[in-house]
From TrEMBL:
The lineage of its organism: Bacteria, Bacillati, Actinomycetota, Actinomycetes, Kitasatosporales. The keyword Zinc-finger does not apply. Residues 47-125 form the Methyltransferase type domain. This is Ubiquinone biosynthesis protein. It comes from the Bacteria.
Length: 258
């Protein structure tokens, strides 16, 4: 049985508590949107599961959004169609109803990832596309030296790519998605060359893993990163990232076809 928070969110995050910073800090990046559009391969009708406020829906022609969180549904632009209140594990659609389906930065918040992906496969006759992070690579990011609790949390929450592939069927590919230096979608790795951005509490709040650590961990992170930026220690170790055009981190596209 899928459990929900008071807000209606499925899984382990209450978006009513943390979702207010999403519109300002989680703006879709055009280059990532292009990768998503290519993976959808021209699908006309697309299901977006865990749609949130509607980021990246421009990557498809016609979108049906599913979002269990009341607060996230309320943040959708007036130019987007209202989202259906449902969860990935129990989609209220017929077999093969959609040309394609996508779920973006969402699977790590589901109660049962395999069941949700099987449901997406059931209602989709074309490509199923998941933008997610490979948990084996999450802790390779420089942030681990400052906030290990945050990245350990992310690594535990993201499902193994192999498990996702087995739920989706036989024809599955996994592609690393390059993260641009000036990425407008503010997940943790988007700030690989702009560490100062993560000193903004609102930017951190837009990444759900920060909600799982206590105030002490956030304060230590803030203090240690500020000290290293002031002393030049961060730039001595990682300054080369400030001019790297793109970063190959844990961000991947998992794509399945029939």
């Amino acid at each position: 049985m899928t459990t929900r928070t008071q807000d209606g969110s499925a899984g382990d995050v209450d978006h009513a508590a943390i979702g207010s910073g999403y519109p300002a800090h989680r703006r879709p990046d055009a280059r990532i949107a292009q990768v998503i559009a290519e993976a959808l391969d021209g699908a006309r009708t697309v299901l977006n599961v865990g749609a949130g406020a509607g980021s990246y829906e421009s990557a498809a022609r016609s979108v049906t959004a599913v979002e269990p969180s009341r607060s996230m549904r309320a943040q959708r632009s007036s130019g987007l169609p209202p989202a259906v209140d449902a969860v990935a594990e129990d989609l209220p659609f017929a077999d093969g109803e959609f040309d394609g389906a996508m779920t973006l930065f969402s699977v790590h918040q589901w109660n049962d990832v395999k069941a949700g992906l099987r449901e997406m496969r059931r209602v989709t006759r074309g490509p199923v596309v998941a933008l997610t992070c490979d948990p084996r690579l999450v802790c390779d990011f420089w942030l681990y030296g400052y906030a290990p609790e945050v990245l350990d949390t992310e690594a535990r929450r993201y499902p193994p790519v192999e498990d996702m592939a087995s739920a989706l069927g036989e024809n599955v590919t996994v592609r690393t998605v390059p993260i641009p230096l000036n990425c407008t979608d503010g997940f943790n790795e988007a700030y690989y060359g702009r560490p100062e951005m993560l000193l903004d509490p609102a930017a951190r709040q837009a990444c759900s893993a920060w909600s799982f650590v206590d105030d002490g961990a956030r304060e230590r992170f803030d203090r240690n990163l500020r000290d290293d930026l002031a002393s030049g220690a961060w730039d001595e170790r990682f300054g080369h990232l400030r001019t790297r055009p793109a970063y190959q981190g844990s961000l991947v596209i998992v794509r399945a076809t029939l």
